[in-house]
Specification:
alpha+beta; Thrombin, subunit H; six-stranded antiparallel β-barrel; 10 helices; 22 strands; globular; disordered N terminus
Length: about 425
């Protein structure tokens, strides 16, 4: 064999050995990796530590009990796991219903309101129709009582209420609290058929003070005047402070359940079918999305109760009726919005009778009377009804507001009423 052939043979043998060694190394690495992976899988899946601890071959480590901390972004309050569970339990205590069951249970308590009113455009009156919602909150011997927003029924010359069975009844405004945007209407029970009386029912009140941010909320109302509709969301915020159009500050529940035009005066419910708020589309309006507001029921309930229990005004004989000594006009929302400084709603004092009861008490032209004996006044006709029911010589408390240094300031005065012809 030649020396050249020997070199080629040796060269070829070295190459084979090299690649063989590399291949064996790769194979060893793959099998070793598979082995380690298998051990890890077995270790992860099987309770190896528990087996070793049970066999006494390993000491159990000391483990601290984990704690869960939740942060509510609205108020920045840190809540421990125990408190968070307590809040959750409190928020869902009692019978929990699904949405269809809540709707079925509460729809007989919700009404649609259809309103006809006169609106002035450039000095000309035009009849307009609007819609809203209401909630059946009580009943006495003669009347069915329905709560709603004041702005829903403001200026209504005809108010029709439609019940869950499709029947309608004429309603009158029993009273209102204008700063709180609340009103109570009454429908004579004589207008209702026995079938309607059997189907409708009074809403069950909840406690809005016990609400928790994030819990479910259900809104029902006469959206856009098409009839009752249902939207679902959560409680987005509590104790939301908002400045109203009249300058008053109110505290509201915020929800992302859609509240559209016509929903005003409707119900905000919890998952137990309890009333927790009275919806108001006027707050926020159409400028934002996913931010609806409701008057908390714990705020609204005492006001509604006071209006419900207000004594019926009974006109006295003409010779016993009294007068206040002013000429005035109803100050509506549309009129108020046109003023440089927005006045409160109520009775605008156009003039004061010289040496009359009002002047003696200090009232002046330009004042706005807002309450009579603690009752919120909406129209001049309502003031006249009070004067017809109060005898001359009676001393009453009148609340009014006066424009001073660019803002309206509230005052109270005692007025001794006099005879109409004096």
């Amino acid at each position: 064999m030649s020396e050249e052939n020997v070199r080629e043979k040796k060269k070829g043998g070295f190459a084979r050995k090299f690649f063989t060694s590399v291949g064996l190394g790769i194979a060893f690495g793959i099998f070793a990796g598979i082995g380690f992976l298998g051990v890890k899988i077995v270790y992860d899946v099987l309770p190896v530590d528990e087996m070793l601890i049970s066999a006494g071959l390993k000491e159990a480590p000391e483990v601290e009990e984990p704690t869960l901390t939740l942060q509510f972004a609205e108020c920045g309050v840190l809540v421990s796991e125990a408190n968070a569970l307590a809040i959750a339990d409190e928020g869902v205590s009692g019978e929990i219903l699904d949405v269809p069951e809540v709707v079925k249970q509460t729809m007989p308590s919700i009404v649609s309101i259809n309103l006809t009113s006169d609106v002035s455009y450039h000095g000309m009156k035009q009849e307009v129709k609007s819609a809203g919602s209401g909630i059946i909150v009580g009943q006495n011997e003669n009347e069915l009582l329905i709560a709603t927003n004041y702005h829903v029924v403001e200026g209504g010359k005809e108010i029709k209420v439609q019940f869950c069975d499709g029947t309608e009844g004429l309603a009158t405004v029993k009273g209102q609290d204008i700063p709180m945007d609340l009103a109570v209407m009454s429908v004579s029970l004589e207008e209702l058929t026995e079938e309607t009386k059997d189907q409708i029912k009074i809403i069950q009140l909840g406690n809005s003070d016990e609400l928790v941010v994030g819990e479910a909320a259900i809104a029902i109302g006469n959206s856009l005047g098409y009839g009752q509709s249902v939207t679902v969301g959560v409680i987005s915020a509590l104790n939301r402070e908002m400045v109203l159009e009249n300058g008053e500050t109110g505290i509201f529940i915020q929800t992302d359940a859609a509240i559209n035009q016509g929903n005003s005066g409707g119900a905000l419910l919890n998952t137990k079918g309890e009333l927790i708020g009275i919806n108001s589309n006027k707050m926020g309006g159409t400028y934002v999305e996913g931010m609806g507001y409701a008057i908390p029921i714990t705020t609204a309930e005492p006001i509604i109760s006071q209006i419900m229990n207000k004594e019926e005004l009974v006109a006295l004989p003409d010779e016993e009726q009294s007068y206040l000594g002013i000429s005035g006009a109803t100050l509506t929302s549309s009129m108020a919005s046109q003023q440089a400084v927005r006045p409160p709603l109520g009775i605008y004092v156009a003039s004061v009778v010289e040496d009359g009861p009002a002047e003696k008490a200090g009232l002046k032209r330009g004042d706005v009377i807002t309450k009579f004996e603690g009752n919120s006044l909406a129209t001049m006709e309502e003031l006249q009804e009070y004067l017809a029911a109060y005898a001359a010589g009676t001393t009453v408390t009148v609340t009014y507001e006066r424009l001073e240094d660019g803002e309206y300031v509230e005052y109270e005065c005692q007025i001794t009423l006099e005879k109409k012809d004096s």
